[in-house]
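Retry 2 of 3 after timeout on previous attempt. Resubmitting structure tokens to design endpoint.
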């Protein structure tokens, strides 16, 4: 069962989940995404919500609609996502994380990168 929170609209949460999968190479560039119906069934949500999530990915240039064939991952989608996610992390998340580490008195040598 997939859980949703009240922090963002469900379509945006689904778009974020699908984008994370694309970042992991699932499905690979040039391949089709599952159909709206399949995603609605998988996530137990309204097909219109799925369509809105997919349109969000289209708007971001990550997937494209091929008339009568479905949605396909665009070439370069993974690198585009990677750049965007890195930028977001460095600009938004890292400063907060760095401040928390400082408050907790944690130093770089206290962090074990290998067990991640």
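Retry 2 succeeded. Sequence:
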């Amino acid at each position: 069962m997939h859980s949703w929170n009240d922090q963002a609209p469900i379509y945006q949460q689904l778009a974020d989940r699908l984008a994370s999968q694309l970042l992991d190479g699932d499905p690979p560039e040039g391949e089709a995404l599952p159909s709206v119906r399949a995603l609605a069934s998988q996530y137990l949500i309204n097909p219109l919500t799925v369509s809105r999530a997919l349109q969000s990915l289209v708007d971001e240039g990550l997937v494209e609609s091929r008339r009568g064939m479905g949605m396909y991952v665009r070439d370069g989608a993974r690198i585009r996502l990677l750049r965007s996610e890195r930028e977001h992390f460095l600009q938004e998340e890292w400063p907060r994380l760095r401040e928390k580490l400082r408050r907790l008195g944690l130093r770089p040598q206290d962090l074990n990168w290998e067990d991640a």
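Attempt log closed. Residues 40 and 47 are 5 Å apart (CA to CA).
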